Amino acid sequence: MRRYTHIFRLWFYEECSDALRLRRFICTGDQVSPSVSSDSEQLVSNIVSIFTKKPFHRDSLELRNLAPALTTKVVESVLNRFKSWKIAHEFFDWASSQSGYMHNCYTINALAAVLSGARRNAEMKTLSSYLVNSRCPMTPGALGFFIRCLGNVGMVEEADAVLNQAKDLGLCIPNKYTYNCLLQAISRSNKVEILEMRLKEMTDFGWELDKFTLTPVLQMYCNLGRMKCAMRVFEIMGDQDWLDVHSLSIMVLRLSKLCLTDEVFELIQKMESRNIRVNEQTFCILIHGFVKESKLDAALELFDKMKRSGFTPEISLYDTIIEGLCKKGQLKRALDLYLEMRESGISPDSKLLIKLSNFFSEEQMIQLLEELPEGMDTKTVTLYYNLLLTFYIKAGLTDKAHIMLRGIMGSDSNSCDTAMDSLIKFKGAGFVSTASFNIVISGLIQKGEVDSAVGLFLDMGQVHCRPTVEIYNNLIEALCNSNKLDVAKDLLREMEATSGLSPTQFTHNCIFGCLCRREDTIGAIDMVKVMRVYVHEPWIKHSSDLVKRLCNKGRVTEACSFLADLVEEGFVPDIVAYSTAMRGLIQTHKIDQAMELFRDLQAQGCHPDVVAYNILISGLCKAKRVSEADKLFEEMLEGGLFPSVVTYNSMIDGWCQIGDVDRALLCLSKISRKAQEGGPDVITYTTLIDGLCNAGKPDEALTMWDEMKRQGCVPHSITFMAMIKGLSKSGRPEEARSYLKEMLREGMKPQIYVYVALLEALISEQKLDETFQVLREMLEIGSFPELKDKWHVALRDVLAKLVQDERTSSSIRALVAEGHLGPHLSDTDR
DNA sequence: GTAGGGTTAG
């Protein structure tokens, strides 16, 4: 009984100040400190400075001296002064351990406000336990406050539990206010059962409900979308005249979420007649929502209402609506709104302007400029100018942008057309920026007008604009791409020496790439030496490109030494660059060197891939070193690599080359038929057809042809040629001819050697008429090969035989006379 | 403002 008396006294005295504090809290959002005497004020400052000072020792003498003077009022003040929740927490902890001092519900709440604001849920949980375990008596208001702190961080169940515990332990006799706080906390969740249970409890107590009870209930039903219940609560509140800005917001936001636009307006109207107005935040949320749903009329109507209610919209709201209008194609309204915004004193930011320029036409962009008020500050004018410049560049009107920029600079007013002249109200160096140059220079480069770009760049100094790394890089890249290496190098020098800018990896690589394209090995390596100083890695694609170019021209040795030089400089090329070099070596018949390079790489820990193996295997096979190739093949399998069709094709060719057709066929059977690997391809079959014919097995070649077609593989001209040549060489020119006919029907043009083989086969069988026919066909689709042609002599032999025979000699002479056989034959065959 | 470069049949 005594205990209850104590609590009663406590809250009887303190309820008033509690209520006052809460009121202030609601208005300002801050936990309000109790007033302390000036002595205490000094103490508070001392403690605050000790705790914020680093390094900090909680056992310092200074603190120990202060401890005896500690009171709850002082602690509360101190807690409200810290900006960091961590320090507040630390101080609270320190205070708890001082002898003779005990926290009360106000110091606990002070910490709760700090922790809740910082969303420290874990610490809030600990504080809840502390509150209960310390058996700290609480006023109903204090408990309510604590519960709201829990609610703010979504700790609804904890809030519910704390109320029970405080009640059960007799720490507090909660009143309606406490319960209302709890309801408010619960309404932030979807735990409707808890809410309804508490509500029932309250009615059981015989308490009269008020608007603070029903607002959370309304909120809960709205959250859950139980609109019938929500409407019922709303009506009750209306009947009791309990509606306010807050409840209106809840309802109106929900209605807009349900897309009930008409109802939103109806409700706002109705409320206005009762002098309840939507607050600024709700206006903003509603307008954003409407724009999102493309209800621009509704958004604009609300926007007007908002302004009439005396609110000044912020730029973000203008931004949203203007963008919405642009997207709907209502550019006129967007522009009007934009101008209205500018008039209302909001200075436009570049984000919104850039957005507008994506939608506006040239006329609208110009209108924007023309309506610039006199006396606009330089920076803003430049922003508008740059916008129009960007617009012109995007529209491909590069010349216009160029003329405009020069017009603003005032450099050549005579060449500036009058329309442009009137557009540019503000002229002079102050109205252009580095960005203006960047825009136009990039535009010129895109159009391939590199010289103009450089010219413009050189004029930047006149208007005191400093070039950036980006501008230098753009120019240097463009110059290198158009092979103007000297100018690019000049710019690089100027970049460092005059502008004091550091070239980037990109800058150097542009020049390195250009040197590589020029096949300037020495220059490239010199550049690499420079780059090494900057720790700029030369891009491997450029190195590979150079290697490939050199190899294609037979400069393999140079290519290899370039790669070695790169290594020397500390930049190790990758397997692709080396593969190119190995192929280059193979093409110049330096297979052993290629092998050596390959083994060196492996020795350095590099694991060559399938392509690298393929290059070597094919090289060895072409050189008929098939058993070595086969060893590599095995090695590759051991290394866990999967041979590709290319690998098999090369091996098949190799086996055929040395006449081991059986091994070739064995390879064929091993080619994976997995869907993603595709199985044998045209090249496989072509190689085999060629190999089988060469091995004197034309019948098997014919079977292979059928097999290929059965597999759905379509023969190429090379396949046809292999078949035709093969059959001819096997003494079966008749069949060869039928494949030739099919090939021609397919629209493919055989190479000359195919005809040579066929003609030779026909003539050796003395089929002179047919030989002549094929010769005529050959001449129909192409001219007779010239003297220096590889096949010239062979064909002349054929002709000689035809001329010697009386059945065909006159026809051949006729052909010669008509000039079909070229100029070289006339003397021989006469 | 920056990733695609190397392999097989005649």
What is the strand tally? Answer: 0
Which percent band covers the strand fraction? under 5%
Report the sheet with the most strands, covering strand number, pairing sense and barrel closure: none
Tell me the radius of gyration.
Answer: 45 Å
Measured as a percent range, the helix fraction is over 70%
Oligomer: single chain
Separation, N- and C-terminal Cα atoms:
145 Å
Task: Give the helix/strand class.
Answer: mainly alpha
Total of helices: 47
Q: Which segments are poorly predicted (pLDDT under 50) over 5 or more consecutive residues?
A: 1-32
Look at the structure and give the mean pLDDT: 87
The backbone outline, from C-alpha atoms, is elongated
Family: Belongs to the PPR family. P subfamily.
Keywords: Repeat
Organism: Trapa incisa
PPR repeats: 175-209, 279-313, 314-348, 433-467, 468-498, 574-608, 609-643, 644-674, 681-715, 716-750, 751-785
Name the features.
830 residues; mainly alpha; 47 helices; disordered N terminus; DNA-binding
Textual characterization of the structure:
It is a single chain. This protein has 830 residues and is mainly alpha-helical. Helices cover 71% and strands 0% of the residues. It is built from 47 helices and no strands. Helix 5 (85-96) packs antiparallel against helix 6 (105-117), helix 21 runs antiparallel to helix 22 and helix 35 (610-622) runs antiparallel to helix 36 (626-638). It starts with a helix and ends with a helix. The model is unreliable at 1-32 (pLDDT under 50). The structure holds one DNA strand of 10 nucleotides.
